[in-house]
Specification:
Keywords: Secreted, Signal, Virulence. Residues 1-20 form the signal peptide. InterPro entries: PexRD54_WY (IPR054463). This protein is mainly alpha-helical. It has two domains: 3-141, no CATH class; 191-281, no CATH class. Helix content is 59%, strand content 5%. The chain has eleven helices and two strands; from the N terminus they run αββαααααααααα. It has helices at 3-21, 72-98, 102-108, 124-135, 143-163, 170-187, 191-197, 211-226, 234-239, 244-255, 261-281; strands at 52-58, 64-70. The chain has a two-stranded antiparallel ribbon with strand order 1-2. Strand 1 (52-58) and strand 2 form a beta hairpin. The longest helix is centred in the first third of the chain and has 27 residues, at 72-98. It is elongated and about 65 Å long.
Length: 282
């Protein structure tokens, strides 16, 4: 590593210190230049990348040789982000004490700016922690409440689903997925609407093969446990697509497989209870 690079790196660290000191005291005047680094770090820890590349250097008599060296850009960006994250963490702590609204902090961290997936933005995990800590005292300030209000159930569901496919954002996506389901239970979101949102109406005859069916069935169970006075039946929804003869055949086939047996038995029990209640009402 050349002396010029070391001097340049030292200068950059000094600049980053200045940037950290210059962070605003309030969210409305935040002026940090935010990085486009897309690394997800659910625990907000910073690690220096060991990415290496081949580079050539000049030697006497026009002879060139290749050596492996640490990518300067990667180190620089990591150092900048480390200092910025530290500065932002301090500001978030102060804003937490002042109970600055989660929506204000969301905008101040430039999370509202287009051009990059929300889940890959550097400060999104920190904002989620901030919002949920504030939301513990003020529910409408929780991350899922703010995100639902901003994007709506359908778009947010799609965002979470996509983020789950990225190893860097999977952990946070799974966390918010659970929070979204909790939010739906609290607001009593219609399970039949979720049936469509989960795309379960596409290929109903293969319902037992769809992972989302398990999630939907669990939601129905949880909703019924929370509101037993007005139960929802899985059978009723499936009955709008298939008649009883086909449903019974599907259940019997699914019971023969270890992978689908549990869900088949669950639907069979649901079908029996729904039918009994219907007969009693008649």
């Amino acid at each position: 590593m050349s002396i010029h690079f070391l001097v340049w790196l030292t200068f950059l660290v000094s600049v980053v210190y200045i940037e950290a000191d210059a962070l605003p005291s309030g969210p409305k005047v935040l002026r940090s230049s935010f990085s486009d680094n897309t690394k997800f770090q659910a625990t907000i820890k910073i690690g220096i990348s060991n990415t290496r590349l081949l580079r050539s250097k000049s030697v006497p008599e026009n002879r060139r040789s290749e050596e492996r060296g640490v990518t300067g850009f990667s180190i620089v960006e990591t150092i900048r982000n480390a200092f910025k994250s530290k500065g932002i963490a301090e500001k978030l702590a102060k804003w937490q004490e002042q109970k600055i609204p989660s929506t204000t902090v969301f905008n101040s961290l430039h999370l509202d700016k287009p051009g990059q997936m929300l889940f890959t933005k550097l400060y999104f995990p920190e904002w989620v922690k901030y919002a949920d800590k504030l939301g513990a005292k003020i529910p409408k300030m929780s991350a899922i409440s703010i995100l639902t209000k901003r994007y709506g159930d359908d778009i947010l569901f799609s965002m979470i689903k996509e983020a789950k496919t990225n190893p860097r954002t999977n952990e946070l996506a799974v966390y918010l997925e659970a929070k979204q389901i909790e939010h739906w239970l609290t607001t009593r979101k219609d399970p039949y609407e979720l049936f469509h949102l989960f795309n379960l109406d596409d290929g109903v005859r293969r319902i037992f093969e769809q992972p989302a069916f398990t999630t939907w069935a669990q939601y129905v169970d949880d909703l019924n446990a929370k509101h037993p006075e007005k139960p929802t039946w899985m059978y009723s929804k499936l009955r709008s697509y298939l008649d009883d003869t086909i449903l019974v055949k599907m259940i019997e086939t699914a019971k023969a497989s270890e992978k689908t047996r549990v869900m088949a038995l669950k639907l069979e029990q649901d079908m029996a209870r729904a039918t009994d209640i219907h007969l009693n009402l008649c």
